[in-house]
Amino acid sequence: MTRKTYDQLRSSRWFAPDDQRSSGHRSRTMQMGYDPADWEEKPVIAIINTWSDAQPCHAHFKDRVEWVKRGILQAGGFPVELPAMSLSESWVKPTTMLYRNMLAMETEELLRSHPVDGAVLMGGCDKTTPALIMGAISMGLPFVFLPAGPMLRGNYAGKYLGSGTDMFKYWDERRAGTITKEEWMGMEAGIARSYGHCMTMGTASTMTAIAEAMGLSLPGASSIPAADANHQRMSTQCGRRAVEMVWEDLTPEKIITPVAVENAVTVAMATGCSTNAIIHLIAMARRAGIPLELDDLDRIGRTTPVLANIRPSGTQYLMEDFFYAGGIRALMKQLGDKLDPSAITVTGRPLVEGLEDVKIFNDDVIRPLSNPVYHEGSLAVLKGNLCPDGAVIKPAACDPKFHKHVGPALVADSYPEIKKIIDDPDYPMTPDTVLVLRNAGPQGGPGMPEWGMIPMPKALLKLGLRDMVRLSDARMSGTSFGACVLHIAPESFVGGPLALLKTGDLVELDIPARRLQMLVSDEELAQRREDWVAPTPHYERGYGLMFSKHIEQADKGCDFDFLRTEHGRPVDEPVIY
Ligand code: FES
């Protein structure tokens, strides 16, 4: 392997020349108390830190960044912390998805505009992982992704509680009147009791697993609980490795190959895979110039069973149990030859290297292929006259009786409208009703909010029912469950066929046949198309206007059209005077 020399590093162009501009760079670095020995002949490693007071999942990053710096210093690098927006899933409105691409752009431009040779990316709360990685891929510098790690198991009255999943489940009970306010307050306090991201196999855990399976994290990093001392050690190792990667010129394009992406999809399917992960996987792959399609995900899903017995696909265990059972490396071992051995990671070594020595400490948590949680990957891609460009559902997380279903649509055009329906205990509907929320896609939401797991209507809760078929062009939280068809594309706000559906129309869902149809004649649909009036756009200025002009549909990964790789690799080199 040829190693880079110092004068080949980007940062040397800022610091090395004997001219007035470089003198200013050196002088202003010394203004902060640094000495030339801090940067001379050393790679500058950016630490993109998504810590903020508004990000509970990354509360430990203020401490962990010091461990990353320690690793960079140990390996002979110069650490530079660059804060980026923290995108808290629990605080940001209307949805963090509105801002995923903004963080991706921020990451790319932070790296481009500063004297940086490589990076450690610190993220974990849902959108932060794809956003940081998308931006860093487009910039093309060597980087390591450091996952925040899951929080400890939730606990109330001696029972485990899982982020999101149990909140949704028990909220239906609260609405059904079976849980007191006092008990509910106890759950609120017990469900998130340490820093770290959600500890179900929701979007955060799926995305960090995907990052590791794609080769972008150190082996085993994504399973370490945030509050475990292994996380400090992993942080330091990331710092050290980022320095070495710069000298080795181990850029993302050498790691993110088509086989690395297929491995990432395979691992995602075996984890139980948040539906959100589909959108992010497509967006990340496309940034790397790999045209991943929904059909690829369905193809890999059909032959990859769910092996991680973690909620919401599993019924009992959480990410802490997953770590103790052997973590993501144990899951990769269980996958055996389903992983392509030619893919490499940030170590420069094959992803599968060392798996033969990995131990599986609990094969009920991390199941063998012979005893899966679910016989296929947890996601199915549907097509039909309601979703010509696709829709997704998690068959493993819904009542099997809905895998084939025909029922009458009950359509709402907005969240307030659906809220009225679900909160009215006497609203006319039957267990067969297909509840529909539209205008909740990328443009309609705006930002494709996580409204897709529409809460069960009180009218059905009082009959003792806890699941029904629901359709929308929204997303749902990765911790959600139920017979929810999501990501319907094209979305209704831009005139997708969902816009033409009327209350009372029969809807057919057939998961084994991968079909979603409205049983309405083509002539009738053509007439409705003529009568359709486009809704008023949400934005007239600012980021929102840019978002609505350039956001792509869910099946394309919801990236901005002008950031696609076919527009050419970004120009890495700023002009330095
Ligand atoms: Fe941050 Fe769930 S709220 S990962």
Tally of strands: 14
Instruction: Round the mean pLDDT to the nearest integer and report it.
Output: 94
Q: What's the number of domains?
A: 3
**Strand coverage percent:** 5-15%
How many helices? The count is 20
Give the structural class.
alpha/beta
The helicity comes to 25-40%
Indicate the overall shape. Answer: globular
Oligomer category? single chain
Bound molecules: FE2/S2 (inorganic) cluster
Unreliable spans are: none
Plain-language structure description:
This is L-arabinonate dehydratase. The protein is α/β, with parallel strands linked by helices and 577 residues long. It is built from 20 helices and 14 strands. It has helices at 10-15, 20-30, 36-39, 61-74, 100-113, 128-139, 165-176, 181-190, 203-213, 229-248, 252-255, 258-271, 276-287, 294-302, 319-324, 327-335, 415-423, 458-461, 522-531, 542-550; strands at 44-49, 78-83, 118-123, 143-147, 154-156, 159-161, 380-382, 391-393, 404-412, 434-437, 469-472, 484-485, 506-510, 515-518. It has a six-stranded mixed β-sheet. Strands 2-1-3-4 form a four-stranded parallel β-sheet, sandwiched between helices. The chain has a two-stranded antiparallel ribbon with strand order 5-6. Helix 4 (61-74) crosses helix 10 (229-248), helix 5 (100-113) packs parallel to helix 6 (128-139) and helix 7 runs antiparallel to helix 8 (181-190). It is globular and about 75 Å long. The two termini are 33 Å apart. Bound molecules: FE2/S2 (inorganic) cluster. FE2/S2 (inorganic) cluster (FES) binds at residues 57, 89-90, 125-126, 163, 197-198, 204.
